[in-house]
Write a structure and sequence with these properties.
Helices cover about 40% and strands about 5% of the residues. With about 375 residues, the chain is mainly alpha-helical. The protein starts with 18 loop residues before the first helix and ends with a helix. It binds a DNA duplex (21 and 21 nucleotides) through helix 3 and helix 6. Its main location: nucleus.
Length: about 375
DNA sequence: AAGACGTACAACCGCAGTATG
DNA sequence: TCATACTGCGGTTGTACGTCT
């Protein structure tokens, strides 16, 4: 045991990193790997302690991290897992590809916690704040069951996170997403991280977790931000109905706009060119992620099955709201707002159908 | 225009766990 | 078994920036 008093050392720089420092650190790690963090600063010519270098790398410079706004789905995941795990940010982070625990923690503290509070939900207990009975809707047995389940899940998720760390397993989102929404895909990923969500939430528990009430409220809160431009869509009368109103056709027809950044609303757009400029828009969000169909650019009537299990995802363009989408943008994103991805680890690229299934899987847990 | 205030986020700090000799 | 080095984690702080008065 013991800790290294690196910050006590004289002459080491503290505070914000400069671009030059970032460049030095990046260049060194790219060339040599980080190796021993303690030895790194001297080798890289940095007046920083190893700990500071490590944090900078992990939370900011690492190439495989996603920065920018959190998608609705990511928010849901955070809330869900926070209800189960509490402030176990690292465990939560294992379920949000490319997000760091620090970023999630900050996001929770600055956004989600406040929003839950405004919704009348205690962000610590995930229960409604004002309850004349002094408890939530569940009875003592439910609460006990919930507590038991939460403990069980907590232990399991942490074990899973540890396994992932130890095995340096890189999750495979396309496959895992299919699993998470209950696809029939055969899976060897019983140890993959998202499979936990699958097993945790698709296998109906005896009682409905309290956190689901929070999610339901969250869903209503967020979908309530949608405004419909025309009347030809079902008017949302309840949170669940409003969710159903967000059907792909409505999205495709551009019948409503949002006043907040929405994660991924249209499914997948297939572009004929890798630069996306010859985009032939095609959204078919009525299909699951593993059964999407692409329209040929040359012949829009010709459909070609897209083998999502295949390797060629280079032509798939998805709207990366986290990086490109700004607030107050309309749902019909211009092509410039589309970002190319090889579909490797982009959580926001799930289809609406998959998104809907995700919600259904959570909200239909009542036994 | 300028100071006060609030917000968001990067970074710091210290504790705890693990690895190693 | 123990001491030390190292890493991971979560709470907290510092600061830049935007908004308000």
């Amino acid at each position: 045991m013991g800790r290294s008093p690196c910050f006590d050392k004289v002459g080491l720089k503290k505070g914000p990193w400069t671009p030059e420092e970032d460049q030095k650190l990046l260049a060194f790690i790219e060339q040599h790997g980080h190796g021993s963090w303690r030895a790194l600063p001297a080798k890289a010519g940095l007046q920083r302690c190893g700990k500071s270098c490590r944090l900078r790398w992990i939370n900011y410079l690492r190439p495989d991290i996603k920065r920018g706004m959190f998608s609705l789905r990511e928010e849901q995941t955070i809330i869900q897992l926070h209800a189960l795990l509490g402030n176990k940010w690292s465990a939560i982070a294992t379920h949000l590809p490319k997000r760091t625990d620090n970023e999630i923690k900050n996001y929770w503290n600055t956004h989600l916690k406040k929003r839950l509070s405004k919704m009348g939900i205690d962000p610590v207990t995930h229960k409604p704040k004002t309850d004349p009975l002094g408890s939530t809707t569940g009875n003592a047995k439910d609460a006990a069951n919930l507590s038991h389940m939460a403990q069980w899940e907590s232990a399991r998720l942490e074990a899973e996170a540890r396994f992932v760390r130890e095995s340096k397993l890189v999750s495979n989102p396309p496959q895992n997403l299919q699993i998470a929404v209950g696809s029939s895909s055969s899976s060897s990923s019983s140890t993959s991280v998202p499979s936990l969500i699958n097993t945790a939430f698709l296998a109906p528990p005896k009682t409905r977790p309290q956190c689901l009430e929070v999610l339901k409220a969250w869903q209503g809160e967020v979908t309530g931000l949608f405004t419909f431009k025309t009347d030809n869509l079902q008017s949302p009368t309840s949170t669940l109905n409003s969710m159903e109103s967000m059907l792909p056709n409505g999205l495709i027809n551009d019948n409503f706009v949002t006043n907040f950044p929405v994660p991924y609303k249209g499914g997948v757009e297939y572009c004929s060119g890798s630069d996306g400029k010859n985009k032939e828009t095609l959204l078919d969000t009525t299909m699951g992620l593993n059964e999407m169909v692409a329209w040929s650019h040359q012949d829009p009537h010709k459909k070609e099955n897209m083998n999502m299990e295949g390797n060629n995802y280079s032509d798939i363009m998805v709207w990366d709201s986290c990086n490109d989408h700004q607030q107050n943008s309309s749902i019909a994103a211009p092509c410039e707002n589309l970002k190319e991805t090889n579909y490797d680890g982009d959580y926001s690229s799930s289809s609406f159908e998959e998104y809907k299934n995700y919600w259904n899987s959570i909200l239909n847990l009542e036994s």
